[in-house]
């Protein structure tokens, strides 16, 4: 809902009284207004409070809906609060359901009860309430929300805006956001009415004060004039005065001129004396009647400013205490103006006293002439002069009373409505286009932000790019993620993608060894797949009819024997500590292929590092290199212990395992350090557990690696079908 007000602002083209017949009387009505002042008045909570009380805006109605309750303008029954609205201490929500013509069911969050229509009932922390029949004949269930007056005021203040959109004109735009168009128009119209009433009341205060002062003075002058006239009548009767000589007429004419001037002077002195009494009353500052001294323009300007400050002080005291800095600032300005006005009055009184003294001297000279007139005529002249003085005072006050009364009658508000409150043809909030645009923008932006934050917070290796950014070591191969729990994925007939990756790794390894035959497997930490890769690479090499030896030299935590399902027996540690043992006693078939043999770790020794570099270990490794085409050494993680560095002396190449979404990015500095410091002579990386995203070519096994895997899709389908039938059998 919106409306527009036109404010009388002399700074922007004059007020509404400027062109009227009473424009010259507008100064009697007190301080002039401006657009900025009126904007601040419209924004006050006191004005909103008056509107809330008048419109009962602390009570709202709603109609139950499937998703949310919809606001309701005209319910079947209206809530009437019989207590003082300020007695509402906390909000309350009611649900009203029709039972019969004269009975309704009221339900709250914790109770349900029945009430009669138009019969008062008490609600705790709310007061007396009555339900009255509304304008809707068809009864229906509806909700009622009763809020505290302060909550209603704050809510409407948040939805109410006052703006001056054009600084070149004196118009004010009012906007009130409300879910119900008709109700919003009512509230905004009521707010404007309250503003106009307050504006007129403040302007009438000055006029009423001036009329009261003039009435008091008129009553006194009327009594004095009646007394003088009675004395003249009695004098004439006692002296039987019928006519006055020509000389008396001339003297009386001159005396009348002096009397008139002296009367005006005395009138002004009396007015200044009354004004001084107003100003000397410091404890009770009040508006000062204006324009009672018409000849003193400077004093009238001070009176206008003084009355404006008095009215501003009364407005501030409605919502603030006297200790408020704004109130104290205005009181200081009032005190300064009061001092200036007192000084001005004192200066004017001195000038008038001097003028009166001069007039008295002239009157005394005339009196000396009149003394030569017969005593009877002189007595009459004195009484006539006194009568003229009182008449002049009476006429002056009567004129000012008429001017003030006319000005009060012609008093109008500083503003008028030029655009009545009306609702928009379509809701201005929420704006659908903006919400759709914002939703589309967020729909694109949120995934990007999520991915960015996810990448920012991620500390593990997620892609080959993470590896390439942190190390320049070559990548021998990659191993995709496998859903199968089997430890051996490379067989004579396997055609899966992961099997092809191991075959590609085997081919690359032949070029990397450059005639060597010993391979060391290590990583940064446990569970990165060293044993899995070593087992399957050994099987892949055995498929070339090569003799392959797999050595379980992780003496601290061996795992190959357990993964192959073999019983623990004599192994490397037994051979080293028992000189009588032969090499053939620790070599046993692996069970994965006839060309793959295994050397177990043996008993867990207390000093594994010393065993790995013993002379007997060196002799063992020398002998095994002569017997086998390939030796694969499963070593502990190099990021935890130094065993892998000790074993590197027996190997021709070190394969360093990096597992996707498991290895920390900072751990890639370990192989870099080993190469840069010549701790291990040759290191190549193997990326394990790579998750391949589904694509059009996904069913053919394309992804990281070097093999096509023609049978991967068929194998995955068979695996899924076997798992399905296993679940069916279990169920």
From TrEMBL:
<protein>
    <recommendedName>
        <fullName>non-specific protein-tyrosine kinase</fullName>
        <ecNumber>2.7.10.2</ecNumber>
    </recommendedName>
</protein>
<keyword id="KW-0547">Nucleotide-binding</keyword>
<keyword id="KW-0472">Membrane</keyword>
<keyword id="KW-0175">Coiled coil</keyword>
<dbReference type="InterPro" id="IPR005702">
    <property type="entry name" value="Wzc-like_C"/>
</dbReference>
<dbReference type="Pfam" id="PF13614">
    <property type="entry name" value="AAA_31"/>
</dbReference>
<dbReference type="GO" id="GO:0004715">
    <property type="term" value="F:non-membrane spanning protein tyrosine kinase activity"/>
</dbReference>
<keyword id="KW-1133">Transmembrane helix</keyword>
<dbReference type="Pfam" id="PF13807">
    <property type="entry name" value="GNVR"/>
</dbReference>
<keyword id="KW-0808">Transferase</keyword>
<keyword id="KW-0829">Tyrosine-protein kinase</keyword>
<keyword id="KW-0418">Kinase</keyword>
<dbReference type="InterPro" id="IPR025669">
    <property type="entry name" value="AAA_dom"/>
</dbReference>
<comment type="similarity">
    <text>Belongs to the CpsD/CapB family.</text>
</comment>
<dbReference type="InterPro" id="IPR027417">
    <property type="entry name" value="P-loop_NTPase"/>
</dbReference>
<keyword id="KW-0812">Transmembrane</keyword>
<feature type="domain" description="AAA">
    <location>
        <begin position="529"/>
        <end position="647"/>
    </location>
</feature>
<feature type="domain" description="Tyrosine-protein kinase G-rich">
    <location>
        <begin position="377"/>
        <end position="455"/>
    </location>
</feature>
<dbReference type="InterPro" id="IPR050445">
    <property type="entry name" value="Bact_polysacc_biosynth/exp"/>
</dbReference>
<feature type="transmembrane region" description="Helical">
    <location>
        <begin position="434"/>
        <end position="453"/>
    </location>
</feature>
<keyword id="KW-0067">ATP-binding</keyword>
<feature type="coiled-coil region">
    <location>
        <begin position="211"/>
        <end position="238"/>
    </location>
</feature>
<dbReference type="InterPro" id="IPR032807">
    <property type="entry name" value="GNVR"/>
</dbReference>
